[in-house]
Amino acid sequence: MNPDLEKIKKSVSFERTVVLVKPDGLQRGLIGEVISRFERKGLKLVALKMIQVDDTLLEAHYSHHIDKLFFKSLAEFMKSSPVVAMVLEGLEAVEVVRLLCGTTKPTAAVAGSIRGDFGMGLPANIVHSSDSVESAKEEIVRFFEQNEIFEYDKTEYLNIYFPD
Ligand code: CMP
Q1: What is the position in ligand 1's atom list of the atom closest to the CA of 101?
Q2: Is residue 54 part of a domain?
Q3: Is the Cβ atom of 150 under 6 angstroms away from ligand 1?
Q4: Quick check: is 122 in a domain?
Q5: CB of 123 closer than 6 A to ligand 1?
Q6: What's the structural domain count of the chain?
Q7: Domain holding 139: CATH number?
Q8: 125-139: string of b/e by CB count within 10 Å (b at 16+)?
Q9: What is the rounded CA–CA span in Å between residue 135 and residue 107?
Q10: How far apart are CA 43 and CA 90, in angstroms?
Q11: Which among 125, 128, 130, 139 is the best mutation to test ligand 1's pocket, defined by most ligand atoms within 8 Å of the CB?
Q12: Which atom in ligand 1 lies closest to the alpha carbon of residue 78?
């Protein structure tokens, strides 16, 4: 491996985070656009797949929303077509991805963010992203088998990070 890449890997504290492109993102042909935004930012895609979620998975994933009035419509929406799940890696990836996605409510999301540029309503806010490093760890295990997560070197890191 390139010695500078080795240094970057040792000195930068990388995080991983989960993104789901929700059924509205899939129906509206925004999968490529969403992935492209993360790629252009410099995030590394380490896992990617299309899945059909079911009630068991949704009750675990949205357990903190299960008592909310909108849970039923959220669950119906999330099951209405497949979703695209991915794991992204990078420096402070959880916060960086949340900023790129924009706030939960698309009408309040800043222009330039995914929800700010493409969304109007709820629950159809195009993407889900992990809200903390701890949730990201749980969501990675919830959505991915170990052999679906890829370890590889991204030479682009030489142009993105600088070893301390
Ligand atoms: P997400 O980031 O996946 O986290 C919880 C989801 O619940 C959220 O995005 C929205 O899709 C949905 N949601 C949050 N608030 C509301 C609401 N008031 N009405 C309907 N859906 C909501």
Answers
A1: 2
A2: yes
A3: no
A4: yes
A5: yes
A6: 1
A7: 3.30.70.141
A8: bbbbbbeeeebbeeb
A9: 25
A10: 5
A11: 125
A12: 11
